[in-house]
């Protein structure tokens, strides 16, 4: 896979006439994936709120004044019960998120027990716990962790405007620890944070020029949450033009052909037509259920109706890891 994309090449893709861009993205999609299938992933917040980081979009930051209240790390049994529900609903991957800057070593035993338990159910396991040391990454790998989510969020240039408590380089360092431990990488970001087209180019460029493409690339549209810096800045505004959002998905697909591109946060307020364009542009993964971590998601009945309308099929939950195998 090409990892030597230039910013100019990526900018030129964004600049293509829309139908030409979509056609090319759909071609790449078909050449690398079963184009009528969409992976279903389920999220669970295993430790909510009270996070010391100041990410300007996040409802869980202690720096924001939102309605989210802080809670302790969940018990292993409760997490496994939730994973069993996700499995029964047809989910392929179970993603557990904690509002931490980084896990404390004393939390690792419980977190690893969650991974082992979820894995034993035949689900793909994913966690997002903030920054990791090499040792923590190895512990998670030994417990059976398949994926680690750690987003670069935006372009290197824009990053400091959104988050001040850690740097873009900190993110890259954790991604490297995750890779070295042999865990697959889930890494993407958010559009609709007031960034420029050039920032979106820089965001995709940073992902597509990593030493190895992330196996999963979540593309989130900002969910404006009242009480967060960005939620208050963009209250009631149209955050990103639908066509520009679809272009971002298409450019991600073309530059990272084998990756799963996930239509992530923001789907709840997205029209069916825009979602359909995203699937045509190569998105092939979604979060299911009526809740993401703290905000609303489209919900299973709306998604089932959409899949029926579009003739899309959920990816086979009994056939996990096949994209990764295909990539190797
Ligand atoms: N604390 C961990 C970390 O930051 O790595 C994991 C949890 S964090 C909620 C995971 C990702 O969700 C963020 O990196 C961001 O891209 C996305 N996210 C969080 N809040 C969002 C929002 N309001 N709208 C869209 N995406 C959001
Ligand atoms: C990602 O990129 N999106 C998911 C997952 N990784 C962890 C999280 C979306 C969170 C949306 C805001 C919320 O529900 O709090
Ligand atoms: Fe904390 Fe993650 Fe939210 Fe940032 S995105 S405030 S690190 S939970």
Give an overview in words.
The model is unreliable at 320-328 (pLDDT under 50). The chain is built from 13 helices and 10 strands. Strands 1, 2, 3, 4, 5, 6, 7, 8, 9 and 10 form a 10-stranded parallel beta sheet that branches. Strand 8 (260-263), helix 11 and strand 9 (285-287) form a beta-alpha-beta unit. The radius of gyration is 18 Å and the shape is globular. It is an alpha/beta fold and 328 residues long. 6-(5-methyl-2-OXO-imidazolidin-4-yl)-hexanoic acid binds at residues 43, 59, 95, 97, 128, 149, 151, 188, 218, 220, 223, 264-265, 292-295.
In short:
This protein has 328 residues and is of the alpha/beta class.
Blueprint of the fold:
Elements lengths: L6 H9 L2 H15 L4 E11 L28 H13 L4 E6 L9 H13 L3 E5 L5 H10 L3 E3 L6 H7 L5 H13 L3 E3 L2 E3 L5 H12 L7 E6 L7 H5 L8 H14 L4 E4 L8 H9 L4 E3 L12 H11 L2 E2 L7 H6 L1
Parallel strand pairs: 1-2, 1-9, 1-10, 2-3, 3-4, 4-5, 6-7, 7-8, 8-9
Helix pairs in contact: 1-8, 2-10, 3-4, 4-5, 8-10, 10-11
The structure holds S-adenosylmethionine, 6-(5-methyl-2-OXO-imidazolidin-4-yl)-hexanoic acid (DTB) and iron/sulfur cluster.
């Amino acid at each position: 896979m090409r990892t030597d994309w230039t910013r100019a090449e990526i900018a030129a893709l964004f600049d293509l006439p829309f139908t030409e861009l979509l056609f090319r993205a759909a071609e790449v999609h078909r050449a690398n994936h079963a184009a009528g299938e969409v992976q279903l992933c389920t999220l669970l917040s295993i430790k909510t709120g009270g996070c010391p980081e100041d990410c300007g979009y996040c409802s869980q930051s202690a720096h924001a004044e939102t309605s989210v209240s802080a809670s302790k790390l969940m018990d292993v049994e409760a997490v496994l019960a939730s994973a069993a529900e996700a499995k029964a609903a047809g989910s392929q991957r179970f993603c557990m998120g904690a509002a931490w800057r980084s896990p404390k070593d004393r939390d690792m035993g419980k977190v690893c027990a969650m991974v082992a338990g979820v894995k034993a159910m035949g689900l793909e396991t994913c966690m997002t716990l903030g920054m990791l040391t090499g040792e923590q990454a190895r512990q998670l790998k030994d417990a059976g962790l398949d994926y680690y989510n750690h987003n670069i969020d935006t372009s290197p240039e824009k990053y400091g405007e959104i988050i001040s408590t850690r740097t873009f380089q900190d993110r890259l360092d954790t991604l490297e620890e995750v890779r070295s431990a042999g865990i697959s990488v889930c890494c993407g970001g958010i559009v609709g944070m007031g960034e420029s087209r050039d920032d979106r180019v820089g965001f995709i460029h940073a992902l597509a020029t990593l030493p190895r493409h992330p196996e999963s690339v979540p593309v989130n549209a900002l969910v404006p949450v009242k009480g967060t810096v960005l939620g208050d800045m963009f209250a009631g505004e149209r955050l990103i033009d639908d066509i520009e959002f679809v272009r971002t998905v298409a450019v991600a697909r073309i530059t990272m052909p084998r990756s799963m591109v996930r239509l992530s946060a923001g789907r709840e307020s997205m029209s069916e037509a825009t979602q359909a364009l995203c699937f045509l542009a190569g998105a092939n993964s979604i979060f299911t259920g009526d809740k993401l971590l703290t905000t609303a998601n489209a919900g299973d009945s709306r998604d089932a109706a959409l899949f029926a309308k579009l003739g899309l099929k959920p990816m086979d939950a009994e056939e996990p890891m096949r994209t990764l195998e295909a990539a190797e």
